[in-house]
Write a structure and sequence with these properties.
Elements: H1 18-53, H2 65-73, H3 77-90, H4 94-101, H5 107-113, H6 122-131, H7 134-151, H8 154-160, E1 163-168, E2 174-179, H9 182-205, H10 219-237, E3 248-254, H11 255-259, H12 282-290, E4 293-299, E5 305-308, E6 312-313, H13 317-327, E7 341-345, E8 360-364, H14 365-373, E9 377-380, E10 386-389, E11 395-396, H15 411-418, H16 440-448
Parallel strand pairs: 3-4
Antiparallel strand pairs: 1-2, 4-5, 4-6, 7-8, 9-10, 10-11
Length: 449
């Protein structure tokens, strides 16, 4: 069993001992390699900035540069978004960029600095980065942002900072955390209070041998029940003055066409139009009909309405639940979206494709449009799965392929050759921090000036 480092007690090690020399030698190798990694990471971010600003990630049909990094490089989405943010911020910060390119500061420090850095305060931030640790830099930025928030317009900042977060505990419970502007927060609380009052009245009106049934539950428990009631009410009644369907496509065809066993006219030409009379392309019509409620209006040759067919849903609810359970979000390579998802017919129903689970795949709105109107295709492969192809017909891999790394390569030697003109050594990225406390009021004040 390994003893934790924090609980080890060792005798003083002489500077001449092999253990001391081993510690010093290995420590120098680690810090030197970190310097090279810093310089290489700067080059990586420089390339990411070019890749993002030139929009080259769009050629692969992904939603953003961060999605491309997640797909091709195996970088987590949060980390990928941060790398794109930092990369773009460095383009406006020449002094921090120059210091980073020499391997003198770490990504952790740069990431923190770019949250607040401007051309005017670069020198001050670099001074803190040189003499402090990553912890000091993160703490300074956090305190500085807190002070600046207090000095900004409260109403506008409250609106910009609105958020709703969801997390799942180990016992299966769901934790909700909302941050709302004052007026909308009061609106939500008012709705919860009204539901709470209604629940209290309903329980009190019941004939019960225990009149204090309400009192036995805590206020927090009853408020949680009120929130559930609000959700159930919304799901049952929907938003005010709103239809339950995202799309209701009114399909106008002649009686003769409807009687023929052929593809509907709206899928063969550009005569399709939505309820408001605006015309859409055949592919757009197919996309809207992939996952929507369809009502057929049967007309005669003079345009007189004969009858209105019963509204039918292309993908029934039970099959939709099975599809959601199977795909767990958008299936397009590199996409991580799990919300605002459409069901897509691989072979469209208007072309004879059946509404069956093996002919359906989930796509987010962005990729659903790309598959119908953007030149990308989605087909079944020989194994019965789903294969996507880009605009040039090339098959897209479900996940990015990382290049093979030969284990015989000495990474440190390779980096020395590449960055030999930077003169990186074991002290390049080491902070010049001396022990002692930091006067945070003075430090933040310096950054405010």
């Amino acid at each position: 069993m390994t003893t934790p480092a924090c609980s080890r007690t060792t005798a003083t090690v002489p500077a001449s001992s092999p253990v001391f020399r081993r510690s010093e030698d290995l420590g120098n190798q680690i810090t030197e390699l970190c310097g090279y990694i810093n310089a290489a990471t700067y080059r990586l971010l420089e390339m990411i900035r070019e890749f993002d600003q030139e929009g080259l990630w769009e050629l692969d049909g992904v939603c953003s540069c961060a999605h491309w990094l997640n797909w091709k490089c195996g970088i987590g989405m949060n980390a990928a978004r941060e790398k794109v943010r930092v990369a773009n911020a460095l383009g406006e910060l020449p002094k921090i960029s120059a210091c980073y390119s020499r391997g003198e500061i770490s990504y952790s420090k740069v990431r923190a600095m770019t949250r607040v850095a401007t051309v005017d305060n670069e020198d001050y931030l670099l001074m803190i980065a040189e003499h402090g640790t990553a912890y000091h830099m993160e703490t300074l930025v956090r305190k500085y942002r807190r002070v600046t928030r207090l000095n900004e317009d409260d109403a506008e900042k409250q609106h910009d900072n609105r958020a709703f977060r969801i997390s799942h505990e180990d016992d299966g419970t769901v934790v909700l955390h909302a941050r709302l502007p004052a007026e909308t927060g009061a609106l939500v609380l008012k709705a919860i209070e009204r539901a709470l009052d209604q629940n209290t009245q309903d329980v009190s009106a019941e004939t019960s041998p225990e009149p204090d049934a309400v009192e036995r539950e805590s206020f927090e428990q009853r408020r949680a029940d009120a929130l559930i009631d609000i959700a159930e009410s919304y799901l049952a009644n929907g938003p005010a003055a709103s239809s339950g369907d995202r799309y209701q496509v009114m399909l106008h065809v002649s009686a003769e066409t409807l009687a023929e066993d052929e593809e509907p006219a709206f899928c063969r030409d550009n005569t399709s139009y939505i309820e408001d009379g605006s015309h859409v392309s055949a592919e757009t019509a197919r996309r809207l009909c992939c996952d929507a409620a369809i009502s057929v209006l049967k007309e005669d040759d003079d345009g007189e309405l004969l009858n209105i067919g019963r509204k039918s849903r292309i993908i029934p609810p039970a099959m939709r639940r099975a599809l959601r359970s199977r795909d767990e979000g958008c299936r397009f390579p590199g996409c991580t979206h799990q919300h605002t998802i459409d069901g897509h017919h691989i072979t469209h129903w208007s072309q004879g494709g059946e509404t069956r689970l093996d002919n359906l795949v989930q796509l987010c709105r962005y990729h659903h449009r790309l598959v119908h109107e953007g030149g990308f295709t989605c087909k079944k492969n020989t194994a019965g799965g789903v294969a996507f192809h880009d605009r040039n017909g090339r098959r897209m891999e479900p996940s990015g392929k990382l290049p093979a790394v030969r284990p015989s390569i000495d990474i440190t030697e390779q980096m020395r050759d590449r960055y030999e003109d930077l003169y990186i050594d074991a002290n390049t990225c080491v902070s010049h921090y001396s022990s002692g406390g930091i006067d945070w009021d003075l430090t933040v004040s310096g950054l405010m000036n």
